[in-house]
Amino acid sequence: xxxxxxxxxxxxxxxxxxxxxxxxxxxxxxxxxxxxxxxxxxxxxxxxxxxxxxxxxxxxxxxxxxxxxxxxxxxxxxxxxxxxxxxxx
Length: 89
Fold this sequence. Notes:
Elements: E1 2-5, H1 8-17, E2 36-37, E3 43-48, E4 54-59, H2 74-82
Parallel strand pairs: 1-4
Antiparallel strand pairs: 2-3, 3-4
C-alpha cells in the first residue's frame, strides 16, 4: 500500500523511531528504508506496519512529476492496469 504525504521527513522519523523501516535493497541499488529519489522520479521510503504489511510512503510533491510517459504518470498507468486495462508497453 502506498501513501502520498506532505512532510516525508517527519513520517520517516516516526517510522525509524518505531523500527518499522524496510531493510531490503531495491531498484537502482537504493536502500528501501531510506528516503531516496527512486529511478522513476519519486522521493519515497519503504516500511512496514505493526503486522508486517509493506508500506510505501511517498513525497506528495514528486508524484505528478515522476516519470510522465505517453502523457500520463506511472501512477495513472498503474491505476488503469489495476482496473483491468491492458498493459501497452
